[in-house]
Structures are given as C-alpha cells and as structure tokens.
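Re: your question from the hallway

Yes, I did run it. Sequences:
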Amino acid sequence: MHYKMKLAEDNYRHKGLRQQMVNQLRADGFTDERVLAAINEVPRHIFLDSSFVEYAYSDQPFSIGSGQTISQPSTVALQTSLLSVESGKKVLEVGTGSGYQACVLAAMGAKVFSIERQRNLYFRTKEILEQLPYRVKTFLGDGYEGLPNWKPFDRIIITAGAPFIPPKLVEQLKAGGIMVIPMDDGKGGQTMVKITKQSDGSLAREEFGSFKFVPMLTGTAND
Ligand code: SAH
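Structure:
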C-alpha cells in the first residue's frame, strides 16, 4: 500500500510568524527583497517534524532525521542572495535535505535540480515536494558527481561543508555562472565562498563569513 503523508496546514498563525521572521531578517540587514518575498511565501514548518512547528520560524537550524539539519533561515537568505537567482535559471543544489532551500529557489522562478545522498531523506522529501506547487526535480546520488545528463547549470548551490571545490561541478557550471559553496576552514567550520566562472574558465572567489554545516560526504547512504 502506498502511504501518502499529509502535509501540515499553513494557517494565519504560520503566515504571521513567517512575516515576523522576514521582518527580523530585514532588521538584521538582508536587503534582497526578492529573496525575502520567497522566504515569506514558503511554509517552512511543513519541512520540519510536526513536533518542531512552534520553532519553525525562529532563526535556528533543526534536525530533519538521518543526522541531518535544515539550514537556519538567515543562512538560506544569505546563500540565496549570493546566488543571484532570476526566473528561468537552471539551479543545481547539492544536499536536498528537507527540500526547504530548493523550494525557496523555485519560489523565485528557478528550475531546481537537487541531489541528496541519503536514501531515507531523498524519499521523505520527494513525497513532501510532490504535494507542493514548486518545480524541483530531485535525484538520489552523490553531489560530487553533479548531474552530467542535465548540465550545464547557471547556478550551483552546495548546502553541506565541502573540503574542496568539486571539479565536476565546476565543469557543469556555465561560463558566467555562480557557485555558492561553504568551504571547510580547517577549524571545524566553513567559510561561505562565492565563485564566479569567468569566460576563460578561471574562477573568481569572494568570501562571506563563517558558518557551520554538516559535511559533504561521498557516495550514497541507506540511513
Ligand atoms: N538544503 C537543505 C539542507 C541540507 S543539510 C535544506 O534546505 O534542508 C545537507 C544535506 O546534504 C544533508 O541532507 C546531507 O545528507 C546532504 N549531503 C551531504 N553530502 C552530499 C553529497 N555528496 N551529495 C548529495 N547530498 C549530500
């Protein structure tokens, strides 16, 4: 028997909490109104276990099972802003996790292709995404490999801590394209790095502060 999970409702209380969260992000200095509008639209509580609904709209990361976390809203806001998403852009995400970041990108009009290495998370999130009105194509696989059958991408966003810039992802990024990647800093955290691929193939690099992500691992896993 195929079991379809039922999504939590999105009521006025949730919408109010979401508006407050967006106001807080604005007060904290986020100025990209297109990103804030997408965050205001996507019901973040739906991506968390129901026991966390009360906390869905505070600026915290949360467990989503399989030892993984949904990134905190301010991190989603920053990564999304750095990505300069426009309607119709093809975006590759590494680390589908809960699916929340993917939906924020899709709410901005991006065509999102998202890879997850953990089987349980992949299936759980696929089922949630099928019930939401966002265009996100999900894949079970290893983000280090990218999606050679769907390349090239205008944008690539990595949502796990990377030990190096995966060469296959650079190859799958269009000239002029942007990759946002949290790079291991050798001290247990990551530095947010924005990479722009120049027309001659060289990479321009800018840094945007310290973060703490779960690690980007290789292969796929069954837990
Ligand atoms: N973007 C997610 C946050 C995910 S946390 C969200 O919005 O909820 C990071 C995710 O990256 C985890 O689910 C982890 O399993 C996944 N991950 C780690 N290494 C990976 C790899 N090599 N390929 C694909 N996914 C990976």
